[in-house]
């Protein structure tokens, strides 16, 4: 738990069991993408210390507000004294003003079956929470852009920099366009319910990676 993997010189993955978090930047100036569940905070702090010694991140950025991606945001934001950013369409959920719909058993697959027995946990409301700026360099994500990939949640976002798209569980889709598709589509019967939103995210991210806007950036 908390194992670091260097994906590119400025993109490091933190494995948190069934989810990942990402550290973008270098040890002196970096941003945390997603936090995992609240119970992952200790592992994430250890990983961050290993990555940057005691240099805190510039900010915490959330791909969306589900408990398994944003569960540790409040605790880590307070620990480091840094703000949290997300799409404006996720802000009502992250502030506790709205709740995500409960999982739908009708979607099929293992998680669909499981949905009839579980209630999706909610995150503690965030206070130092802000809308992602259009210029991500303002929050330490130099050279990166935000790609709106709604579907999984209303304000789900992905991130890309030249040749790289990061999406779904903060997963780095690929360094090459041709691999984005499969990287975004986990195999296995349990994921039927996820296929449509994942494909939607994949299509949007591929469209972005193919666009002039992506490749014309630094
Ligand atoms: Zn989610």
Task: Output the keywords.
single chain; 218 residues; alpha/beta; Metallo-beta-lactamase, Chain A; 7-stranded mixed sheet; 4-stranded antiparallel sheet; 11 strands; globular; binds zinc ion
The helix/strand series, from N terminus to C terminus, equals: EEEEHEHHEHHEEEEEHHH
CATH fold name, please?
Metallo-beta-lactamase, Chain A
What composes the largest sheet? 7 strands, mixed
Structural class: alpha/beta
Determine and state the CATH class.
Alpha Beta
- Counting copies of identical and different chains, the oligomeric state is single chain
User: Looking across the biggest beta sheet, what order are the strands in?
Assistant: 1-2-3-4-5-6-7
Q: Which small molecules are bound?
A: zinc ion
Radius of gyration from the alpha-carbon trace, in angstroms = 16 Å
Strand content: 15-25%
What count of structural domains? Answer: 1
Low-confidence stretches: 168-195
Spatial shape: globular
The CATH architecture designation is 4-Layer Sandwich
What does this structure look like?
With 218 residues, this protein is an alpha/beta fold. The protein has one domain (3-215): Metallo-beta-lactamase, Chain A. Helix content is 29%, strand content 23%. The protein has eight helices and eleven strands. β9 (157-161) and β10 (164-167) form a beta hairpin. The protein is globular and about 45 Å long. The termini are far apart. It binds zinc ion. Residues 64, 66, 69, 152 line the site of zinc ion (ZN).
């Amino acid at each position: 738990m908390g194992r670091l993997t260097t994906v590119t010189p400025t993109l490091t993955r933190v494995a948190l069991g069934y989810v990942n978090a990402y550290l973008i930047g270098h040890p002196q100036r970096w941003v945390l993408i997603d936090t995992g569940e609240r119970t992952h905070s200790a592992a994430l702090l250890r990983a961050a210390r290993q990555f940057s010694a005691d240099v805190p991140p510039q900010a915490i950025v959330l791909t969306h507000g589900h408990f398994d991606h944003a569960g540790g945001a409040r605790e880590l934001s307070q620990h480091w004294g840094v703000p949290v950013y997300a799409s404006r369409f996720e802000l009502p959920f992250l502030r506790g003003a709205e709740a995500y719909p409960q999982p739908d058993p009708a979607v099929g697959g293992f998680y669909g079956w499981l949905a009839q027995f579980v209630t999706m946990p909610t995150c503690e409301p965030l206070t130092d929470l802000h809308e992602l700026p259009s210029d991500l360099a303002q929050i330490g994500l130099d050279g990166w852009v935000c790609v709106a990939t709604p579907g999984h949640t209303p304000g789900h976002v992905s991130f890309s920099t030249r040749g790289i798209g990061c999406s779904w569980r903060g997963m780095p889709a690929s360094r090459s366009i041709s691999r984005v598709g499969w990287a975004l589509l986990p195999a296995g019967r349990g994921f039927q319910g996820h296929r449509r939103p994942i494909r939607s995210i994949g299509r949007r991210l591929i469209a972005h990676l193919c666009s002039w806007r992506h490749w014309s950036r630094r």
